[in-house]
Sequence to fold (316 residues):
Amino acid sequence: MNRSASRAQQNIWESCTEMNASLVQSLFDGPLDIVGDVHGEIAPLRALLQRLGYADDGSHAEGRRLVFVGDLTDRGPDSPAVVELIQRFVAAGRAQSVLGNHDFNLLLDHRKHDNGWFYGKEVTEGGQIVPQVLADETVQQRVLSFFRTLPIALERDDLRIVHACWNDEMIALARDSADVVDLYNHHHGLIEQSFPGLDLDDIDQGLMHQNDNPVKRLTSGPEERVAQPIVTSGKTRFGRRVQWWNEYQGTFCVFGHYAIPYGQPRGSESTFCVDYGVGKRWTERREGKARNFTLKLAALRWPERLVVFDEHSCSS
Fold:
């Protein structure tokens, strides 16, 4: 798909930019259910919504509303169905979502290990094909149009939502922008211009792009250099994620992205990670674990601070 050649798509994106006054938008008032990274797992999503008490149209008898922390796509079996469902809820005013790094990669047309489905390509891991619904051009256009409308952060007096990291300096830059791709490209160019005066190798340059670009920082989180390379998602990396929440002080912030295993600390007194790793559930299916999954889809009920899983619930 050649998006740059598609004037119709460009018109859609321009219309979306006009609708979005800012990439940091107001969060719903009232009680919320904040859903972690879905990653194309449509069955757990439907099961979770049922456990939470939502009707098929996204309405709730108690007036609750849904908020998604991003990474709606990739890895799981049916990303198109997940996007279609959440887009329908958002259009009805019954849900909000922020943009995740996997979602943003599609806007940039960055082909990654996990997003072959979007380009009609099968993904293979461990010598086996990952079962996924593949996108056609109609699905591609619908997904891109929807993602282009999403903010990068949501906020209200008692609560903040972002995909990977809340950083006040980067949030301020996003607050002054209405287009996520333009914001990313602008700062990508500024960072590139700074390199000639600095003595940096490729790794340090990559870390600057990660940490100093507001879109990357907010959707992927800060990183630091490591002595030994790490292989994740089919890629060798020379940086590791920084646990920014240990230093965070501010309004309570809910985020995803980090797939923190069940039972481990999930943030601080002022933060909570709601990503329980459902995006890798296909590996458990491959291993024959059709029941009692350890990787789950979760929602944090606010203000109750109760975690509800697609299978069971517990206090946060």
